[in-house]
UniProtKB/TrEMBL annotation:
PANTHER family: INOSITOL MONOPHOSPHATASE, INOSITOL-1-MONOPHOSPHATASE-RELATED. The keyword Metal-binding applies. Belongs to the inositol monophosphatase superfamily. InterPro entries: IMPase, Inositol_monoP_metal-BS, Inositol_monophosphatase-like, Inositol_monophosphatase_CS, Inositol_monophosphatase_SuhB. SUPFAM superfamilies: Carbohydrate phosphatase. Its EC number is 3.1.3.25. GO terms for molecular function: inositol monophosphate phosphatase activity. It comes from the Bacteria. It is an enzyme of class 3 (hydrolase). This is Inositol-1-monophosphatase. It comes from Caulobacter ginsengisoli. Keywords: Hydrolase, Magnesium, Metal-binding. Its cofactor is Mg(2+).
Length: 262
């Protein structure tokens, strides 16, 4: 659709700058936001500026919520972009080629279109509400068909310096890692969600996330036939910043194990 083309074009243009700067550590101008391990680089800011200009030009008046500049209220009260210009900044700084540009569009509080683009792998995940989730041109995405915890590979996020929740996380990990085929921590929540949609991960859970990490992935996973809730098993994901995404059979099994750990 025309809307998806706008989003894809913006993601590809912003990604050019990221790819150019990737690995050029001396040029990155890394700084910390506050005292925690919450880094920002010149590349995050440049990509965000590019996305803001292109999305705003194509759809004037839409509100714009992005990690580095916060919320810019538009005149259009029904539409809001939710943007992470670089998800996986810590990977990026360490020259680990696993990061993404994440763009979602909300209409009246519901995510209706999503793009998650990993430029290094050249994988562009996209979805439109009611029309399915796709990888690159035409490959339709489906969540994994595995239904047993014994077969499951789950992704998560390990809390780091400056983040709360180390103790509950370690309890959960202790419980769940004994029951599954594997747990992974790759460092980009947007790609964790996209990989659940693609059936690579059987599930993903994390806490302490923000709307720009999750909004696009929520639509990717649900359009790929999966289920996304917060860690209470309820719908409010963006408001709580906790998430569990998985296929319909795996979701309750993982949720039960996570809850039992608490
Ligand atoms: C981070 C990544 C990471 C998650 C952090 C996020 P950023 O996003 O998604 O996987 O564990 O909580 O903040 O800061 O690289 O955009
Ligand atoms: Ca960040
Ligand atoms: Ca992020
Ligand atoms: Ca970011």
């Amino acid at each position: 659709s025309a809307l998806l083309n706008v989003m894809i074009d913006a993601a590809r243009k912003a990604a050019k700058g990221l790819v150019r700067d990737f690995g050029e550590l001396s040029e990155l101008q890394v700084s910390r936001k506050g005292s925690a391990s919450d880094f920002v680089t010149a590349a995050d800011l440049k990509a965000e500026q590019t996305l803001f200009e292109l999305l705003n030009k194509a759809r004037p008046g839409y509100s714009f919520l992005a990690e580095e500049r916060g919320l810019i209220e538009g005149t259009d009260k029904t539409h809001r972009w939710i943007v992470d210009p670089l998800d996986g900044t810590t990977n990026f700084i360490h020259a680990i080629p696993h990061f993404a540009i994440n763009i979602a569009l909300e209409r009246e509080g519901t995510v209706v279109a999503a793009v998650t683009f990993n430029p290094v792998a050249n994988e562009l995940f996209w979805a439109e509400k009611g029309k399915g989730a796709f990888l690159n041109n035409e490959k339709r995405l489906r969540v994994a068909a595995r239904t047993r915890l014994d077969d499951a590979v789950l992704a998560t996020g390990i809390p780091f310096l400056g983040k709360p929740g180390h103790a509950p996380f370690l309890k959960e990990l202790h419980q769940i890692s004994q029951r599954v085929a594997g747990v992974r921590r790759f460092g980009a929540a947007a790609l964790d969600m996209a990989w659940v949609a693609a059936g690579r991960f059987d599930g993903f859970w994390e806490r302490g996330l923000n709307p720009w990490d999750l909004a696009a992935g929520m639509l990717l996973v649900t359009e790929a036939g999966g289920k996304v809730t917060n860690l209470e098993g309820e719908d409010d994901v963006l408001g709580t910043g906790t998430v569990l995404a998985a296929n319909l059979e795996m979701h309750p099994l993982v949720l039960e194990k996570l809850k039992a750990a608490g």
